[in-house]
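Reviewer 2 asked us to include a model.

Predict the structure of this chain.
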Amino acid sequence: MRSLLASVFLFFLVKSFAQLNATKENLPKNWYLLDKNWDGVYGISLSDAYNFVKDKNSEPVVVAIISGGIDTSHEDLCESLWRNPGEIPGNNVDDDRNGYIDDVFGWNFMGPYFERGVSNNNVSEGIVDAGTYFAGIIGAIRNNEKGIDGIVENVKLMTLRAYQKGDSENMEFIKAMQYAIDNGAKVICIPVIRQFKSWGGAIDSVLLDAERKNVLIVEAAVNGGNMDENNRYLHHKTSTLLVVGSSGPSDEVLFDLNNNGGYGMKIDVLAPSLNLYSTRKVPRVSENKIADSNDSCGCKTGECGVIYYNNTNAAAAVTSGVAAFILSYYPGITARQLKSIIEASVVRIPESLTTKIDDEEFPIKNVCRTGGIVNAYNAIKLASTIMEEKK
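Predicted model (structure tokens):
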């Protein structure tokens, strides 16, 4: 009995200590992967999720990231990158006849320096920090003692460059979505918020195609403002679209409308996005030498190849990672089921927590439709239950 009481006391002591230290200054670099009960932060409980499936085998899942491109030579990402199995690199031939020559890692739909109407196969040219950052959250190589651990161990990251503003009808972006669907992506991560001048035509067609081909689209919410008052984003144009808002690590900094928090019932779930630590493009001072942290490469963390970031966009990457993690162990789950699982398994936000919106107290649980934060452990357990019931 004494031993049991000691164990209970130790549990609550550890829990209280973790919660006490869940401040901005003391956040672990991987806080978004941690657990509320054990670590005192609103992370996604990834260790518990992996323990739950430790006796199961996984299958690779293709996740397309539509952003500014990815550093394909980053040592913490290279093994996780999607490589087109039907393409022979460098032969200047469209080997798989998909309309794109040498599309080894994906495609650059916005060309060099954002030139209109120009596209090529160089997915790493120009400014690719953002895409590299999102890629690390989803699929940085796990347990290699370098950089960070991504969420998904068995993932292939498809690289698609499409500029946020694009042309008047966002055709670059629409083409990138269609490429992802046609080339095997099961999750499309859209961390860069898109605006569409009009609906119908090409955009409706590609959204319906994603639905037909069982592809989950994960879209970041706008950075600030009421999503319910804006109809110029993808939002709920399809049953396989999941809209994600921003959440922070603790009750004190759970929602920050001033910096990166949109709100409204068009947002399905929240996910961590405040001060996340992930990969960045590795600066190079010569063709064969990687710059160290003392060179003028702008490494904000003291380590080249990693960076902190604070934006709703990262929430889409976290949620895409959770979705791909589930699919890697339960590939038979449909995109609609996957969306429902992620929504039904959220960690609910306490009723008492509020934030200021338009100078009025507003319950944080009402900043999104489900009133909760994505959780990999809860989601994988629910996926297991659903798949067992199908047998």
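The radius of gyration is 21 Å. The first helix runs from residue 2 to 20. We have added this to the supplementary material.
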